[in-house]
Design a protein that fits this description.
Layout (H helix, E strand, L loop, with lengths): L6 E2 L5 E2 L3 H8 L27 H27 L9 H10 L1 H35 L1 H16 L2 H11 L3 H26 L3 H9 L4 H41 L5 H11 L3 H30 L4 H4 L3
Antiparallel strand pairs: 1-2
Helix pairs in contact: 3-11, 4-5, 4-7, 4-9, 4-10, 5-7, 6-7, 6-9, 7-9, 9-10, 9-11, 10-11
């Protein structure tokens, strides 16, 4: 075997070639320099233009359509020279609304009060009836047709009887409006209470949950979207019922609400005041619906997909 070539030192003696390697192994090793942690930079969210935001679109688009319709209305009345006792212009209607606000404002408060009271009565009664229906399928089968019968009966035919039977005019009109607004709450809330996932219902039965626990912790949270959908419908129906009841009471000589103002304006051929009263009724209905939509977003916006998907 051949031996490795020796290395010559300064003194002239030979040294093995492995000595430098041994020296390197015996030399102390330096610790690696600590690495600096770099924080990840957050990517800025792209800024959505104002008109591209859904919330802005839900307000601006209907307003634009309304302005176009009002301008078209004003233009047709001016071009065709229609008399005010046939079709008043929007400007004349607004002028009448301001000049006759003393009478229209008081009537508006009466109509709103009847609507709110009737809506509250219908909500409480509808929820209680739905709780009763969901406890037993036999009870729902026996009583639900009468709820449908109450819905399909014209309130115009029932309102005179209620006003005769109930001595207090305000209470009678509240009852009439509540009957109109009652069925959507019963129907939607009952459907929501029944729309429970079978797996969750089996889990509650497996844990021996009582009917009250199942109702409070399972059925009511599942029924909230349906319940708020019924509130949106019933709020408008309560206003309609209030106006119908005021019409019936107005024909009997009891002056109350915007419907009575419409009757008096019709008798006097004061069509601008009639249109002003109709405008107040329409704005009240829009305000009620917007209030119910806001309440729905507050209650369901943090957890339900029907509200989270709107943005």
């Amino acid at each position: 075997m051949s031996t490795p070539y020796p290395t010559v030192s300064v003194t002239g003696t030979a040294a093995p070639i492995a000595a430098p390697a041994a020296a390197e192994r015996s030399a102390p090793t330096r610790a690696p320099a600590p690495t600096k942690l770099v924080k990840p930079t957050k990517l800025a969210k792209p800024r959505i233009p104002l008109m591209a935001q859904p919330r802005v679109q839900r307000v601006v688009y209907p307003l634009l359509v309304g302005l176009v319709l009002i301008a078209l209305w004003q233009g047709l009345v001016t071009a065709l020279e229609l008399p005010p006792y046939l079709v008043p212009s929007p400007l004349l209607m607004l002028k009448t609304l301001f000049t006759d606000w003393a009478a229209l404002g008081g009537s508006l408060w009466v109509t709103v009060k009847i609507t709110v009271l009737a809506f509250g009565v219908a909500t409480v009664a509808g929820v209680l009836i739905s709780f009763l229906f969901v406890q037993s399928k036999r009870i729902e089968t026996a009583l639900f047709p009468y709820a449908v019968l109450l819905q399909v009966t014209p309130i115009v035919a029932v309102a005179p009887l209620i006003i005769i039977w109930v001595k207090d005019p305000m209470a009678s009109m509240v009852i009439c409006a509540a009957l109109v607004a009652l069925f959507p709450i019963i129907s939607n809330t009952t459907l929501g209470l029944r729309s429970v996932e079978p797996d969750l219902q089996s889990y509650f039965k497996l844990n021996h949950a009582t009917r009250m626990q199942t109702l409070v912790r399972l059925r009511i949270p599942s029924a909230l979207p349906y319940f708020f959908g019924g509130l949106r419908i019933s709020s408008g129906l309560a206003l309609i019922g209030a106006v119908v009841a005021e019409f019936v009471a107005g024909t009997g000589g009891q002056g109350a609400g915007l419907a009575y103002q419409i009757l008096q304006a019709g008798f006097q051929l004061n069509i601008p005041r009639m249109f002003a009263a109709l405008l107040l009724i329409s704005l009240t209905g829009v305000a009620l619906f917007a209030l119910m939509a806001w309440g729905t977003r507050v209650a369901l916006g943090s957890w339900h997909a029907s509200e989270n998907s709107m943005d």
